[in-house]
């Protein structure tokens, strides 16, 4: 009986081993899989880049070629003739001085503005009484920016005419009241101190004859040492600032009549200024959030350069004719209305802040003290 022996290294058809099947699968599948995942990755990267590109463009400019977009500006006056692309390299970086003014305070404002050299400062006047033409006899008036709107406040003007993109080319923004005496103040020396001390928000110290609302801003008495103080201590009496005080108005705080902002600090503060709250009461206690870093370090009062705040009431001062008795009565009524709205705005701002904090789950207050724990 004969037998048939099959001499072959291949298994019979239909009996292919599972190992061979796996080898054949893995010899084909990996390149295809790699290509597939690479294509998916590239598609995702393209979508991400496109999204990032649109996100990084100024809102509203997405339909324009990138190179044509100029989203920053300034208050530099341009000549009517000449080369529009003239070289501007090498020009000193300027700062901006913005002041609300009325014609009754013309002499004080002239003295104030004259202290600021035109080579280093741009001047912008907010005419709250609507009178512009009677400033033209001052030598610096033609180079100043004049904005007029009757019976509006400094913060109303600032919100509408000092947008961060318009002041992005200025190193510092001085947003001052008009009733400021500057006999003891030099703006150039002031900025030297501010730069050296890395102050994001600052103010010149107030002469002790000034109208002072919080003792932190009063000029430190001679012998204290240094050009700047950032903290006020009062261990006795009725004051509420002590050695462990970490917030405004004991530290990280400036008055609202002569604040000075770095461009970064102003960009933040401008967003915080409410469009409908024209006195900005309550804003001073929150400015430290815009100081980039610890407010006790980045907010300070410059003692070596100081001013006198005269405290002249200008808004709601009456006017419009009538005898002295009628004018005085109208002025008192108007001043009361200003004061009442200021207090009302303080309550509104504080309520809005509380609501914003409660609603924003992504924001953490860097100055919020941790809740006390009972160790029993």
UniProtKB/TrEMBL annotation:
<keyword id="KW-0472">Membrane</keyword>
<keyword id="KW-1133">Transmembrane helix</keyword>
<feature type="transmembrane region" description="Helical">
    <location>
        <begin position="28"/>
        <end position="49"/>
    </location>
</feature>
<protein>
    <submittedName>
        <fullName>Uncharacterized protein</fullName>
    </submittedName>
</protein>
<keyword id="KW-0812">Transmembrane</keyword>
<dbReference type="InterPro" id="IPR007877">
    <property type="entry name" value="DUF707"/>
</dbReference>
<dbReference type="Pfam" id="PF05212">
    <property type="entry name" value="DUF707"/>
</dbReference>
